[in-house]
Amino acid sequence: MIRFYFHPTPNPAKVALFLEEAELAYELFPVDTSKGEQHQASFRAINPNGKVPAIVDTEGPTGKEVRVFDSTAILLYLSEKTGKFLGPVVDRPELLSWLLFLASGLGPFSGQAVHFQHSAPEALDYAINRYRREAERHYQVLNDHLKGRSYILGDTYTIADMSAWGWLDRASRVLKGADDPFALYPNLKRFFDNVDTRPAVARARNVGKDHVFKRVNDEETKRALFPSNYPLIA
Predict the structure, then answer these.
(1) Percent of the chain scored above 90 by pLDDT?
(2) Are strands 26-30 and 66-69 parallel, antiparallel or unpaired?
(3) Taking every annotated instance into account, which residue ranges of this chain make up the domain GST N-terminal (predicted)?
(4) Is 32 in contact with 7 (CB distance < 8 Å)?
(5) Distance CA 219, CA 217 (A)
(6) Where are the alpha helices (DSSP H) in the chain?
(7) At what angle do helices 71-82 and 92-101 cross, to 10 degrees?
(8) Contact 37, 31 (CB under 8 A)
(9) Is the peptide bond before 53 cis (omega within 30 degrees of 0)?
């Protein structure tokens, strides 16, 4: 059984999609990051970094319980355990390259673009321009690569596509103000639509819907989400 620690944000969404695609049995553990539940000692024992997603596999490789945190690590772990969505062995270097591109590039720059356009206490033109333009550059890199390809590895649907879907699903927030965030990226739009129409995506979108997460962006939320902005005062 997989214990899945979840909040309805892009990185947990990737893992939700894998669990639904692979039809794995899992138990959902909501973590309300706006309330600071990710900082509780019980959760830090699972992810010392205090972020979602995280999983605990009660039937790990040696038969013992194991923890895995970070969405890319979880996708790799589950795909290797199940033998699903890894693609051909010959394409493993390509798969790893794109996974790291998404984990270190498209995801973080998209997240920072969202932060400075939607959450920062004041509009900082340099920061907005920096992260928005880098997010757009990553979109273009992926758009160029996807020309003539159905998926990132060609014709094979893999965890790289699930990883990309998680953040591309928030394109309207990343590229704030764009009527169609994919208008300049036709290959990316085709790819996203390709993934988004999969039956497992609809199921993944419903994960956690029966739990009421905090939606108010008040002082408690800001301190919970961005604790490094609030250093302790001696």
Answers:
(1) 91
(2) unpaired
(3) 1-86
(4) yes
(5) 7
(6) 10-22, 41-44, 71-82, 92-101, 107-114, 125-145, 159-168, 171-174, 186-196, 199-205, 219-225
(7) 160
(8) yes
(9) yes
In the chain, ranges of CATH 3.40.30.10 domains: 2-84+203-229
| pLDDT score recorded for residue 2 | 98
Q: CA-CA distance, 106 to 142, in Å (whole number)?
A: 9
Q: Which CATH class is domain 89-197?
A: mainly alpha
Residues 101-141: tens digit of each pLDDT: 999 999 999 999 999 999 998 899 999 999 999 999 999 99
Q: Check if CATH label 3.40.30.10 holds for domain 2-84+203-229.
A: yes
Question: How many Cβ atoms are within 10 Å of 223's Cβ, its own excluded?
Answer: 13
What's the pTM value of the predicted model, to 2 decimals?
0.95
Evaluate if residue 61 carries a pLDDT over 90.
no
pLDDT tens track for 76-86: 999 999 999 99
Residues of the chain with CATH 1.20.1050.10: 89-197
Q: Which pLDDT score is estimated for 232?
A: 53
